[in-house]
Amino acid sequence: MKDLCSCYVDMVNNSTNQSLETETVSKVGDESAAACSMGLVVVPECEISSDGWRAINNVKDITVGEENVEIPWVNEINDETPSHFRYMPQNFVFQDAPVKFSLSSFSHEQSCSSSCIEDCLASAMPFNCAIAVDNGFAYTADGVIKEDFLEARISEARDQRKQVVMFCKECPLERAKKTEILEPCKGHLKRKAIKECWIKCGCTKRCGNRVVQRGIHNKLQVFFTPNGKGWGLRTLEKLPKGAFICEYIGEILTIPELYQRSFEDKLSFPVILDAHWCSEEWLEDDKALCLDGTCYGNIARFLNHRCLDANLIEIPVYVETPDQHYYHLAFFTTRDIEAMEELTWDYGIDFDDDDSLMKPFECLCGSRFCRNMKRSKKTKQIMNRA
Ligand SMILES: C[S@@+](CC[C@H](N)C(=O)[O-])C[C@H]1O[C@@H](n2cnc3c(N)ncnc32)[C@H](O)[C@@H]1O
C-alpha cells in the first residue's frame, strides 16, 4: 500500500499536464494517505511497481489463489507491507537435491492393500502404510492427531529426558562450514514420523490417512504483531488440539547449498530435515537436506518462534517417497486454540549458539520458559559478579 501511495504521489508530482484531470489528481495527491486507505485511488497499471501490485492484490489472499482457502493479511499497527516472496503451496528442489517422486520407489509392502477401497481408518487392521506409527494410524476419524501420539511428540519436544539425540560420525552441517578442523556433530533429535496414504494406495483422496496432503483448510490471517516480532500468523477461528494447520514450504536445498547462501549473506529461515540423519553410517552431502522459505514459501514463513510452550508442533510426514532424507514438515496444534490467537512454534533455537544458520534475534516470545530471557539473566548475573 505504501508503494501504491508513493507511486501515486510520484505520478502527481511528475505530471506536466495542466488539464482538469490533473487538478483533480493533485487534490487527491495532497491527501494521498487518506485516499489510499479509503481505496479511492485509481492509478494506471504501468505506474505501479510489480511489488506494489503484488502487495495490493494480496491483501485478500496472500496465497494468490494457490491454497484451498484465501488467507488475507492485515496491518493495524503501521503502513508496512509483507516483504516480497513468491507463494508456493508445495516444496520445489532448488538445484542439487536428488528428491524424486517415483512410483517404483514404493514397494507393495509400503502401500496400503488394494482391498482398502475408501477410508483406511475404517479398517479394523492398520495397513502397511501406517507402520510408521506405533498403534496404527496417527489420525482420528475427526482428522486430528491421536492424543497419545501427539502427547508423546510434545513431551519429546519439551522434555530433554524424553529425547533421543543421535550424533553423526561426520556431520554434514559441520562439513559444509569448510573450516580447517572439523567440529564434532552437535546432535540431531530422532523424530517419529507419520506416513500418509498416497497414489499407490487403494483408498480415495478422502481417506482419513490423508490429512497433510489435502492442504490448509482453516481460516487464517497474516497480521503485523503489536509486540515487535514483525509479521505473524493467527487463526480467525477456534481450533481443536491435534489439528493440521500447514506445512513448512520452501526450496529444497542440500546443506552445502544452504551454506553457500549464508556465505553470500543471503538471509534465510532454513528448516533442517535431519530427523533420520544419524541412522546411516555416512550421510552424503546431497542427502542432507533442508527447506528454505525465504524467497519461495507459504504462510509458514510468517510463523513466529515461541520458546517451549508454542501452540504448534512440527512433525515429519512422509507422503510420496519412502526415502527418509526428504519429508514434509507439518504443523499441528498442541492444544485447543481460541480465535485470534497467534500461532507459534519452537524453532529449537539455541540462543547461545553464535554459529546458528538462522539470523539471530532478541526473543520477544513472552513465554515464562523463554530461553533468551534466561540467557540475558545469566549474562546480567555474570556481569554483576565481575
Ligand atoms: C520465519 S520469520 C517469521 C516472520 C517474521 N516475523 C516476518 O515479519 O516476516 C523469523 C523472524 O521473525 C522474527 N521473530 C520470530 N519469532 C520471534 C520472537 N519470538 N521474538 C522476536 N522476533 C521474532 C525474527 O526477526 C526472525 O528472524
Automatic annotation (TrEMBL):
Gene3D superfamilies: SET domain
Primary residence: nucleus
SET domain residues: 218-348
Cell location: Chromosome
InterPro entries per record: Pre-SET_dom, SET_dom, SET_dom_sf, SUVR4/1/2
Pfam families in the cross-refs: Pre-SET, SET
PROSITE patterns on file: SAM_MT43_3, SET
Residue ranges crossing the lipid bilayer per the database entry: none
Source taxon at top rank: Eukaryota
Key words of the record: Chromosome
Protein's name in the database: Probable inactive histone-lysine N-methyltransferase SUVR1 isoform X1
Organism: Camelina sativa
Lineage: Eukaryota, Viridiplantae, Streptophyta, Embryophyta, Tracheophyta
